[in-house]
């Protein structure tokens, strides 16, 4: 009889311990419970995008009259290593066209290279590889010229593109004109133009923008003359 009592006591103690452990686990789950995401992965915050797929807010293109003089040519040459599997800075074509004198050169017109129909069509609105045109294209070739053969994701950092364009200019395009500095392209210019001075009439703040809309900026695009290569 005493043996049965001891066995019952042992079993009861074991059951109590098991119940206690279960209670602790249930309590911990309730305290630290987190909802599982609908889709597994990491949350990456991105800049808010406006309708049409472009980042909200006006884009300020580089002030070529200022940035080319201070560009890092060594850094630009380093950026060109991303292009070397398809391009050379000579007249010879490879997977891509030769890039000698590319800055200012006519679009889709390098001798001996079979351009895509998309690039040929793009030459209509963009007849030359101006500074701005190269800047846009190098940022996202497939987005700027939809259907291009160039399977390259692009160079995202503005300073990297500026350095690369400055370096390319030293290869056959040294004579391509550099526009005068443009204050409208300086960092913060868009914010300054959009916000009137405290106490100033709204009409005064809008006047420069209206004038800019009526008179194209002389330096909006670089000259289209092609340098001698």
From TrEMBL:
Residue ranges with Low complexity bias: 183-229
Native species: Asticcacaulis endophyticus
Family matches, as Pfam families: Cytochrom_C
GO terms, molecular function: electron transfer activity; heme binding; metal ion binding
Name the UniProt record assigns to this protein: Cytochrome c
Signal peptide: none
PROSITE patterns: CYTC (PS51007)
Region (Disordered): 178-229
Highest taxon in the source lineage: Bacteria
Alphabetic keyword roster: Electron transport, Heme, Iron, Metal-binding, Transport
Domain named Cytochrome c: residues: 71-172
